[in-house]
Amino acid sequence: MNAMTHFEAVARLGGVGKAAEELKITPSAVSQQLRVLEHQLGVRLFRREKRHLSLTIDGERLYQTTTQAFESIREVRNAIVRQRESFQLSMRVSPSFGERWLAPRLEEFSADYPTWELRVDATPNFSDFETEVIDLDLRYGDGGWPGLHSSWFLNDFILPMCSPKYLAGLQAQSSDPREQLLRARLIDSSKAYFRWDYWLPRNGIQGARMTYPFRFDRSSMSVQLAKDGAGVVLESTTIAYDDLVQGLLVPVSPVFDVIEFPGYWLVCPSRHMNRRAVRLFSEWVTRVGKRDAERARTFLTEHGFRTTLERRPNFIARE
Q1: φ and ψ of 87, to 5 deg
Q2: Which residues of the chain form beta strands (DSSP E)?
Q3: Number of domains making up the chain
């Protein structure tokens, strides 16, 4: 390849001296590389007439090929450098999180960083950073991704909630929140970190029906069904905060502590953190995440709820 580089420069510039000047080496070093290449190929590449060089037929064939090859290499190299130095991010996110939390905040992000380009892939599949062109992944879990950098950026708050009308119907049947849940239609988010089979015994509720007429692998669908009045969902303020603030969903009762845990993480190979764009986005999403967690905590406190920091082992990663 070194000899090819010297050959291409001589053929393109029309002389050894000009090639040496471009390559920042001596003319004798260029001539030496040309002799090496001709010896390796077993053909003459140049006709030497006094101080003038002209390509032979074999030299012309080789020059056409090397010119195209080196131009392609230069274009790719320049594109890589531009991408590294520009503010472009390609990220993957959990679908419900992307729809309910990230998307509504991207306008705020664009106001802070108006020249950035973002590509967001909302999918339940975790990124394969070795085979896919993905800068980072925003995931729900406990931070356990071996071999990868993971930084927490948002706490989650879990509690049972339903529509105001559905809660009024439960309260008409009983004044005891535990009895209300025994009578309720439970909506299951099948990939949630905390599910009914864990939460109900934890809160002293025995004998509940553990069969669910509605089960979804998308938290956004579970929340929507609860908002429509079909039952009670055990979900997070991250997914349902706007509905809670607007009164479209209401917590079942402050009798039950709200579970708080560090649920959302930025995940990527450690080398990706060397990119300024990845570092700046990490700082932004952490700042916004902490702000929103404090908003949710304030909302819950004002409505008489207490939060308990907790982690549950042996979880199944959520979509």
Answers
A1: -110, 80
A2: 46-49, 52-55, 88-93, 117-122, 136-140, 149-162, 186-189, 214-216, 232-236, 250-251, 258-268, 307-309
A3: 2
> Is 51 found in the same domain as 112?
no
Judge contact between 309 and 157, C-beta under 8 A.
Answer: no
Considering all CA atoms of the chain, what is the largest pairwise distance in Å, rounded to the nearest integer? 107
Residues 46 and 95 in one domain: no
CA distances from 300 to 203, 274, 295, 307, 312 (A): 18, 38, 9, 8, 21
The number of helix segments (H) and strand segments (E) in the chain equals: 12, 12
Confidence class of residue 86 from pLDDT cuts 50, 70 and 90? low
For residue 80, give the CATH number of its domain.
1.10.10.10
Tokens for 202, please give them: 């934890």
169 and 181 housed in the same domain: yes
Residues 35 and 175 reside in one and the same domain: no
What does the pLDDT read at residue 78?
Answer: 75
- Residues 74, 27 within the same domain: yes
Give dist(CA 120, CA 131) in Å, integer: 17
Distance of CA 104 to the CA centre of its chain: 16
- Answering whether pTM is above 0.90, one says no
Q: Is there a single domain that holds both residue 240 and residue 146?
A: yes
Evaluate whether 156 touches 237 at the Cβ level (below 8 Å). yes
pLDDT at 108 over 50: yes
**Residue 264 buriedness (CB in 10 A; 0-12 / 13-18 / 19+):** buried
Domain of 21, in residue numbers? 2-85
Tokens 């510039």 appear where?
13
62 in the same domain as 205 = no
Q: Which two tokens stand for residue 28?
A: 């004798």
CB count in 10 Å sphere of residue 71: 11
- Distance (Å, whole) CA 137 – CA 142: 14
Residues 187 and 69 grouped into a single domain: no
DSSP annotation of 272 = G
Report which of residues 160 and 46 the model is more confident about.
160
How high is the pLDDT of residue 215?
80
